[in-house]
Protein 1
Amino acid sequence: MITFEQLMVARYQAEITKIKTTAFSDQDVINLILQRSEIIKDQTRSGKAVKDWTQGDATQLRSIAEKLGDELIYRAAGII
């Protein structure tokens, strides 16, 4: 398991920062969040955002994806 601190270091590796993110939609980013929720660990009440999604309310996840899209793609890639 990778820690959030390790994730943030990995996110800045050259291989990661070269990723072209233009092909990713906000929905793609939401899917990354749902697969790797640790990428939003630094967000306020991140667990609630995921729980709300499971109950049909994607508002908070959509907001996070719109605000941090590229960053979250890099974070997810850093884990992989």
Protein 2
Amino acid sequence: MDATDPCPLLRGLLRETLEDGALSGRRVALSGPLEGPRAVLAAVLEEGGVELVSEEPEYAIGPFARELRGLRGLVEPGTVMGAVARALDAPVVAVGCSPVARMVIEAAAGPAVVQALLRRTNLSLVGRVVAVLGYGEVGCSVARSVRALGAHVLVVEEEPLLAFAAALAGHRVCEDLDPAAEVVIACERAAAIAELPAGALVASALPGRLPPVLGVATRHGIVHAAGRDVLGGGVALLSPAGDGLAPEAADALLTLQGLALHGLADEQLETGVHRLAAELEEAVAQAWLERRAVHAQPERA
């Protein structure tokens, strides 16, 4: 395994898995721009005989594909409800339910979201009150990252177990948004955000997390008759598919998606929501650890 390759799992584990020809000739649609690690995924799939298409696919990777009809299977990068699978009348593999995917997101999402926020605003978080809405994998990672930069973190979480986890991590926790918050990062769907001070910065970590009135606002726009700096008009700092993550994190997530696609084509799964097979998750974890071992080996004279 090449220690300098930013996508060793895609070029290693996934490429080897596709050598059995299970995806040869299959028509597959991919969501998102084909650049960075996603371009590597596309190249590896094509090497495995996949025909990448934008119309009439048999299989698809990405939440956009929920609206497609005639699919034989869907790989959902996030989590998904059974109603989606029934509407598609096809099996759906929810990669976001994978423990490995959740570990990757919890480790990598926070730094990616915060770096994107700082790049777009040139804002210092030291001493500021930052409210993190939701304490799932993304919210946990974001809260940890902003605290590391010197912010006073407020976690807004109604679910008791998640609120308990946030409190154990040392965060101040409440059910409602504190009007004193200077920066708000929505990691779960936000309720009304009307009591913030004028000029407060509101950002969405993932798509669809802001109320419509905020989602359509423009930067430095006026919301509820008070100044709100809605970053990018509500455009998400991170995508469910992992766009914006560090390359090694995106490599792991996209490899999981590729393996899920292989499983859809290779197995006869019933209509409904399925989780990635445990042995595939273990294979990804083991391959990642082997890569770390390569990096950890000291140079010898």
Protein 3
Amino acid sequence: MRTAFLFPGLHSALRRRDRERYAELPSVQARLAQLREGGFAGQWQEDCATLADAGAYGAVAAITCAYQCGIAHHLMSAGMQPDVMVGCSLGDLARNVCTGALPFAEVVRLCRHFDDNAVNFPHHLGQTCSVRAPAGRVIDRDFERDCELMGLAISVMSRRHAIISGTELALRVVEDACRRRGWACEGPHVPFPVHSPLIEPTLNDLALDQWASSGRDPDRPVYSAVQLRFLNTCEDLLADMRHCYTRPVRWTQAMTQLQREHGVERFINIGPCQSLALLSRDSQDMPRVEKAPARLLRAA
């Protein structure tokens, strides 16, 4: 059975109970030890939600990558070999490590570099909010079009759930529109515009392209949840890292294409959060996503 490993994004390690489910795996502990040695000695045990509130997104990214790499390594050591790996907006880091394209130590250095140089993080550019329609309703194309006309970036995660990024003024219009429709609008999801071209100048300032010299081509297939295509070279992966933060993410379309066009039958959520598994239950269009098999996680 052809299998895909899915590496979710920014909020995947924020909740303590999600991390605790996997914290005792030896492969996770080994990665966390590397964080301590790589400049996060004072943060690796801190709550990720607290770190995010303090703006330490590099630390959040490093901790997320440690957990995801540890979980994926454990599953592969227990005999589950994925045919393709998919990840987006922080999940892309672990995806790149697990395919041999980037050393984990280099990802840790990148995350440390991000926090050390993000003093002028452009909060004024905008924010990101989360929109959810009630049961029986869907986020329709008219709503998507209205967002796009206002210059907002909208990532439709399922038929009922979307992540929207843009200026604070435009997002207030979205909040009003959601209120009229009876939809939930939660925000700011994060205090900057993720999955939006508005954040491109920040990525340029952080000189992320300098990391290209330490990578190599992936040793197994990688599929982009943003570009909806396979990524074959290290250069492809590094370009996709930038796209993961500056373009809308399309999880449902990515999984549907992998299922229909490439014969992938099983989708495993690496976590630590269960967001993708929950999204798949929420959408008739998205293939079913499974949690990491408990019997393999017990085989530590």
